[in-house]
Amino acid sequence: MENWRLNKMVTIKQALDDEVACNEWFLPGNSCCAGCGLEIALRWAMKALGPNTVLVTPASCLNVVIGLWPKTAPNFPFTNMAFAAGASAATGISEALKAKAYRFPGKNWEKITTLVFAGDGGTTDIGIQALSGAAERNSNIIYTCYDNEAYMNTGIQRSSSTPHGAKTTTTTLGKERYKKNLPAIMAAHEIPYVATCSISEPLDIYKKYKKAKTIEGCKYIHILAPCPPGWNYPSEDTVEIARLAVKTGVWPLYEIENGILRMHKKSHPLLDPSKRKPLIDYLSRQKRFAGMSEQSLIELQQNIDNDWKMLASRLHAQES
After folding, report:
1. Domains and CATH numbers, the chain
2. How far from 157 is each of 153, 236, 298, CA to CA, in Å?
3. Buried b (16+ CB within 10 A) or exposed e, 56-93
4. Most Cβ neighbours (<10 Å): which of 80, 146, 239, 268?
5. Which of 221, 216, 218, 273 has the alpha carbon at shortest distance from 250?
6. pLDDT in tens, 52-74
7. What pTM was computed for the model?
């Protein structure tokens, strides 16, 4: 086991192509819960983007876990923002950097990346109006939704990103509605880049942020970030839970660049339903799905299958 871990670390280090990526920009000592998917997501995003990044975070767990100055965890510029205004604030920062580059050429203002890191509440619900506006303007920002599928910071209330059948403090019998497909909504805005990621695939996160950094315009990245207290599973299982989400087809990994859909190598085979692991393997590891009825399980599986059919249809249309 130790040899496997060592080999894995060597592989990861070889894949990181510069010194910046080998550093930590979201520092240890923050107050994230043990096993927090958010911390993994942000660490790997910043390994790709580096310290020349301005981060905007609307109200979410991330506002809380960074700590108080001068002992804050981010080793880069960081701005807390109102719940609804993440994308709006990022647009303003991006335009200010553009103006700086125009007025003071040669100062590398244009090389600073403007990044939003928002929860699903601040993205799929409260922040969607500002995000849609930024997408329509094609603002030069990277907008990230770290998706833990509920309002975790304020008491585990349901969001429009909470999956069907999941229990929260406001859906005590399991949520009736289905998860809002924000990546598809953002792709409908015809922005230059949309991608999905899982914290179980850190190198995929790294590569997609490296690519997003080189693209002009509005980029949207949606990361599955499991939450141990909110999903009710042991904190040491976070990566395995995220990995099962991919293997069961709950969380397809793909990118849409200038309208062209590409599936990740671990998701492409799952276009064949027989290659997916049983959905129950994923659900049974989380107590938020405890007591879920057989009918709800069937309905959730049908919803997932329909999402895959849409992806397959888009791929087929590209090839024909």
Report:
1. 2-319 (3.40.50.970)
2. 9, 23, 24
3. bbbbbbbbebbeeeeeebbebebeebebbbbbbbbbeb
4. 146
5. 273
6. 999 999 999 998 888 877 778 89
7. 0.94
